[in-house]
Amino acid sequence: MLFLHLLLAILAITPLTDARIRRWKCGSTSPTKGFLDGTHYIIAMEKSDAASRLHTREEEPYLPRISFPVVFHILDNPYDIILTEMMLAEQFDILKTTFAAYNIDFYLQSHYYYEQSDWAAGQDYLEMGRQIRVGGYDTLNIYILEIASNKKGPDEEALGISSFPEWSEHIDFQADEFWEDGVQLTLNALVGNPFIDQGPEDEGKTLVHEFGHWLGLMHTFHHGCHPDFEHGGDMVLDTPPQYKKLGSRWPNPDTCHPPGTVQQCSADLGFPPNLVDNYMDYIPDACALSFTKGQTVRMK
Asked: How much is the pLDDT for 296?
């Protein structure tokens, strides 16, 4: 029976492997005006704090350790439950270990299984959130599904999608933004999936990338080569702007680059080389190794 079950699982997901060349890392939609307004406000605070510390010669500000509960929602899981729980445990450990270095902790609150093929296919994401989302804005809800969904609908290419935090005078727990808050991770990006050829996205770091979005980070290439770092790239002052994805959008070569070897924004205009190991770029998992200090402050 176990062999038959595993055989059926392999047959059930064969179409996913055929779509390999169409995958790309992240389908998160463009940040809203509310998010960008909040980002500009935070940048002003960051610059004011940096100027104050420069004047008083104080050390870097102390950033307290913060902790988030994590809830996994597994939609129409085509695998054996025990096998999936093993993969979830490994995926959670990668998330926890990665962010521990930045004084950000997680604890696994719970996980749930649902037989909802329409939700698993990226349909009616808002209604799904209304029915199964858990906790407040401080709870990281992670949805494991076959196809991710953004404002435009199901995105068969994206490995993951995250909401962005919203800037608002008050929190509306009945707003669509609240029910859509969370991270989606497709089966293609779930670490340790033995049935899918994951290629360079096989170390579980898509979830790290998406959690960066959930805490307010944009792609390092989002705003291009603006000479003021406040307006270029990801709008973080110590992250060099770049004008496009550094790495792996299928079927581009999936390779890591030595530091200082990629220069997308003009050196003649004073731009430094690209970062080549940043979690918020599109690069193979093996290359993604760090956040900058500025990105860490922004997440906090």
From this structure: 93
CA distance 54 to 60: 10
Each residue's pLDDT tens digit, 10-62:
333 333 333 333 456 787 777 777 788 888 788 888 777 765 555 545 556 56
Same domain (yes/no): 242, 120 = no
Low-confidence ranges of the chain (pLDDT < 50): 1-22, 56, 248-253
Residue pair 148/158 in contact (Cβ under 8 Å)? The answer is yes
Residue 265 sits at φ, ψ, to 5 deg, of: -90, 140
Q: 101, 140 in Cβ contact below 8 A?
A: no
Which pair of tokens denotes residue 247?
């790495």
Residue 42 · residue 221 · CB < 8 Å? no
Q: pLDDT tens digit string along 125-161?
A: 999 999 999 999 999 999 999 888 887 888 878 899 9
146 and 181 in one domain? yes
Which of 162, 197, 214 represents a domain boundary (last residue)?
A: 214
Q: What's the pLDDT score for residue 236?
A: 92
Whose CA is closest to 227, among 198, 169, 270, 257?
270
What does the angle CA 300 – CA 191 – CA 201 come to, to the nearest 5 degrees? 85
Helices and strands in the chain, H and E counts: 9, 8
Q: Which amino acid is at 29?
A: T
For residue 143, the Cα-to-chain-centroid distance in whole angstroms is 12
- 156 and 239 assigned to the same domain: no
- 220: nearest Cα among 281, 282, 161, 275: 281
| Distances 20 to 56, 87, 135 between C-alpha atoms, Å | 54, 20, 34
* Euclidean distance between CA atoms 244 and 162, whole angstroms: 20
Closest C-alpha to 72, from 94, 95, 88, 86: 88
Domain of residue 250, residue span: 220-300
CB count, 10 Å around CB of 77? 18
